Amino acid sequence: MTWPALDLADAYAYAYAVQQDNITRRLATGATVIGHKVGLISAPMQQFLGVHEPDFGHLLDDMVHRDGGTVSAARYCAPRVEPEICFRLARPL
């Protein structure tokens, strides 16, 4: 299905609206926001994926896998490992 009247700005707005609905639903079932992330910050990755700016999102407590823990691949549709560099700040920016 195509949406000819949908431009790039609309697509971003709808994508982030869907993300916010999912976060709201997960918070309602007990998840906790523990941080935020920015992705696609390098020009080569943006070019590879055909985007022109970084994306952002929420990090929830149930997204964290601690060292030594196990992860069920069946929980994911296309399991991959993507390391994330995190910083814990003493106070909000």
Q: Which features characterize this protein?
A:
93 residues; alpha+beta; two-stranded antiparallel sheet; 2 strands; 30% helix; 14% strand; globular
Low confidence ranges: none
Q: Mean pLDDT score, rounded?
A: 85
Q: What is the distance, rounded to the nearest whole angstrom, between the alpha carbons of the first and last residues?
A: 42 Å
Number of separate strands:
2
Give the topology string: H per helix, E per strand: HEHE
Strand content bin = 5-15%
Query: What is the CA-atom radius of gyration, in angstroms?
Result: 16 Å
Computed structural class: alpha+beta
How many individual helices? 2
For the biggest β-sheet, the strand order reads 1-2
User: Helical amount among residues, as a percent range?
Assistant: 25-40%
The major pleated sheet works out as: 2 strands, antiparallel
Shape: globular
